[in-house]
Amino acid sequence: MRINGSAYVVDISRSQAVRPEKTENTQVQQARGPAQVRTLDRVEISPKARELERLKKEMNQYPEVRLDQVALAKQNLQYGSYRVDATVLAQKIMDTYGKG
Prior knowledge:
There is one protein chain. The chain folds into two domains: 1-62, no CATH class; 66-100, no CATH class. 45% of the residues lie in helices and 6% in strands. It has helices at 26-32, 47-59, 67-79, 86-97, and strands at residues 2-4, 42-44. It starts with a strand and ends with a helix. This is Negative regulator of flagellin synthesis.
């Protein structure tokens, strides 16, 4: 994400930058010094950030729990056909929590 612009306060309800109001007293203006030009801030979202946002929205459409896998596991447990390979389980534990 890139943010360009200045730190000036901008009224977002207007389409232009906030400009200092004109005063009738020119001595006050001269005492303040030269007028400063204020620019609008601009935010540009990178294509990669846009893609990530799109993927987040797409992922939120899916349930967090895969009900088909839960049903299959329950069925295998009920019929006694669920088998755990101890070697594979041990390897996954070591990969997850480290070897030390």
